[in-house]
Amino acid sequence: MEDRISRTTSQNGATDMLYLVDRLEELVSLGKRVPFSTRVMVEEEEFLALVDQLRVAVPNEIKQAQRVIKGRERIIGEAQDDAADILDQANQAADRLVSESALMAETKRRGEEILRRAEEEQQRTQGEVDVFIMQQVQLVEDAVHRGTAVIQEAADDTLEAIHELKNQVTQQR
Q: What's the pTM?
């Protein structure tokens, strides 16, 4: 099993959290059943290796989310720069046409239209970025919750199995 984990790590550069959660589930499903109970015994070394890999993978997922946030900030900055450029262009066009009274009203209307489009574009872009970031954060949260639940369940099952075996040994003495 460690060979499969190390191959995944070396191929992707970072261990995939969902793969690790799947491996934990597989470890539990392949574990030995404790007679007369719903408990499962798992290989401690394999279990702890997967837990260690999850500990490494969670910060990687957080780093990825931070990269997404930086990307969002960059996109918003670009949208604001574009809006400022459009505003500058509109102001320059308005300045050129101010001298002609007949064209002044048309220039104002065009400038307002350009500003309105720029604001709509900025709002649309920011909305798309926000939705994307929320989806990524939700994926990370879901993966962390699933991993934590599997780990907790396996730990609880292991502890309960140990207590049951200890009680059986004590009763046999």
A: 0.34
